[in-house]
Amino acid sequence: MSRQAAVLYSMIVTTCIFFIMLAGCKSLPSATSNTTTTGVNVYTVPQLKYLLGTQYPDLFWNDPDLYPIAREGQELQNALAQFPSIKEDREEFTAILAHLNLTEKSDYTDEEKLLIYREHKMLASGVQISGTASPYSYLLFIGEGQGYKISGTITASGKITELRKEPSFNTHPICLAKGTAIDTPLGPVPVEDLRPGMPVWTENASGERVEGVLIKTAVTEVTTPFYMSIITLQDGRRITASPGHPAADDKALGSYKIGDLLDGSVVSGIETISHNSGFTCDILPAGCTGLYWANGVLLKSTLADK
Fold first, then answer.
1. Which residue, among 77, 75, 79, 74, has the nearest Cα to 96 in the 3D structure?
2. Is pLDDT at 76 greater than 50 in this prediction?
3. Would the CA dihedral through 82, 84, 85, 90 be positive or negative?
4. Would you state the torsion angle of the CA atoms of residues 208, 213, 215, 216, taken in this order, to the nearest 10 degrees?
5. What one-character-per-residue DSSP string does 173-231 give?
6. Closest by alpha carbon to 191, among 221, 153, 231, 218?
7. Does residue 57 surpass a pLDDT of 50?
8. In the predicted model, what is the mean pLDDT of residues 146-156?
């Protein structure tokens, strides 16, 4: 074989090997892409929650800024305080921006932060998605009052399969956790055991501890996820209630911070827990204040205007 022929043969062999190797390779999808190599959309969990919200537009969930008591300016205050942590969850934050048609930028107006916060609350409480891989399980509630509890599965590509739909009476929880001890002349009584007409300690307009009579009690079943605040005081007292429940001075329990003074003692611990089952309660004693002691902490009833 001549030198020229040998060089040509070598080039042909090299070219063949290159195309054989190329044929055996597969292109890798981009790390930021939501589309697989087969062209199928792949959604993040927050995006799947939005898809479920579209499928079930009458979602029922409990907004901690509105129930049991809405306070002017409280929602915006919470939105500004929680915005940094909301922004850290990149999957959820990206989904919210897309849903609101907002662009990624270094800063947002207070109005935009409020809109983002509201979407965050809906995604956190409106739809529950569980599981570590597709298909995921979902649970949600639709309709206030006599509605439904719905469960099923949803794939990463967004295919929704409803597995169960059952009647559910969907209401907004009131306030105190089951088992909270209420001070009465007969001794501590669990809040769920109290009934109208029973005696209870209350405080009069002069700030004196007096015996009163219960004129209203309420027990509300918790169906959708609902967040409760656990506040521990330096003197050992501890109360579990909804963040919106008012203290004696009308300040929401959820707005307290470590070091604040609550009912004469310093707040030493604050915890937020998801209250997914059971029920919550509240009471209203006769008199002009609506005050009572729960686990030894002076609180104000939410039932006065209901």
1. 79
2. yes
3. positive
4. 80
5. --SEETTPEEP-TT--EEGGG--TT-EEEEE-TTS-EEEEEEEEEEEEE--S-EEEEEE
6. 218
7. yes
8. 95
Mean pLDDT across 47-59: 96
Q: In which band, very low, low, confident or very high, does the pLDDT at 174 lie, cut at 50, 70 and 90?
A: confident
Look at residue 270 and tell me whether its pLDDT is greater than 50: yes
226, two tokens: 């609902």
Are the C-beta atoms of 300 and 239 separated by less than 8 Å? Answer: no
Q: How far apart are CA 294 and CA 190, in angstroms?
A: 9
For residues 46 and 60, give the distance between their C-alpha atoms in angstroms, rounded to a whole number. Answer: 17
For 6, other C-beta atoms within 10 Å of its C-beta total: 10
Q: Categorize the per-residue pLDDT at 170 as very low, low, confident or very high, splitting at 50, 70 and 90.
A: confident
Separation between Cα atoms, residue 254 and residue 270, nearest integer Å = 9
Write the DSSP assignment of the chain as a string of letters: --HHHHHHHHHHHHHHHHHHHHHT--PPPPTT-SB-TTS-B---HHHHHHHHHHH-TTB----TTTSS---TTHHHHHHHHHHHHHHH-HHHHHHHHHHHT----S---HHHHHHHHHHHHHHHHTEEEE-SSSSEEEEEEESSEEEEEEEEEE-TT--EEEEEEEEEEE----SEETTPEEP-TT--EEGGG--TT-EEEEE-TTS-EEEEEEEEEEEEE--S-EEEEEEEETTS-EEEE-TT-BBTTS-BGGG--TT-EETTEEEEEEEEEEE-SSEEEEEEESSSS-EEEETTEEEE-S-TT-
Average pLDDT over residues 176-202: 96
130: amino acid identity, one letter: S
Alpha-carbon distance of 246 to 301, in angstroms, equals 7
Most confident of 8-17, 239-248, 249-258, 290-299: 290-299
